[in-house]
TrEMBL record:
Gene3D superfamilies: 3.30.530.20. This is SRPBCC family protein. SUPFAM superfamilies: Bet v1-like. InterPro entries: START-like_dom_sf. CDD domains: SRPBCC.
Length: 175
């Protein structure tokens, strides 16, 4: 039996994390959108393969497999927003927006990423995240460990920052 929308909303968890990156906004947007770069900064990424559409563009669905310790999560990612579509020559006053939904067993999430200029060579990355859980086990995880989700989001942002600013590859740190 599928959970009702009301049940999913009751089990919702929301948080926002942010970080400054010492690179121009356009370069940050290009690196975030480049599928070739993802394994270098997205710790735990096992697989990210488009099932339909063009990677990173609105409407694209991808199979995503992530591993944290001994736990593996598989889901389907759908890109729901990318503005502007062309990440070259972005007007100075524009805000870059990326949004994606991920659905997997016992969980649905949405991430709303916003990139703004914090200075001439600095980008502010704000990430709004929402998770909804179904099934007893996933609800318990969401209830008992909400900080783990926020901590993981911050880790991904820190890894991206280290990659973008200094070329550090998370795969090299893991051996």
């Amino acid at each position: 039996m599928r959970p009702s929308t009301r049940e999913l909303e009751r089990s919702a968890m929301k948080y926002t994390v942010s970080m400054e990156i010492a690179l121009p906004r356009e370069r940050v947007a290009q690196l975030l959108a480049d599928p070739e770069q993802m394994p270098k900064w997205l710790r735990g990424l096992v697989l990210h393969e488009p099932l339909s559409g063009v990677h990173g563009h609105v409407g694209t669905k991808s199979r995503v497999v992530m591993r944290t310790g001994q736990q593996e999560f598989e889901g389907t990612e759908t890109i729901t927003r990318r503005e502007p579509v062309d990440l070259h020559g972005i007007p100075k006053e524009s805000v870059v927006l990326f949004e994606r939904e991920i659905a997997g067993k016992g969980m649905w999430s949405v991430a709303r990423e916003r990139l703004t200029e914090a200075g001439p060579e600095t980008t502010l990355w704000v990430s709004e995240n929402e998770y909804r859980f179904s099934g007893l086990m996933m609800r318990l995880v969401g209830l008992l460990m909400p900080g783990a989700f926020r901590k993981q989001s911050l880790q991904h942002m820190q890894d991206f920052k280290a990659f973008a600013e200094h070329g550090k590859d998370v795969r090299e740190a893991n051996g």
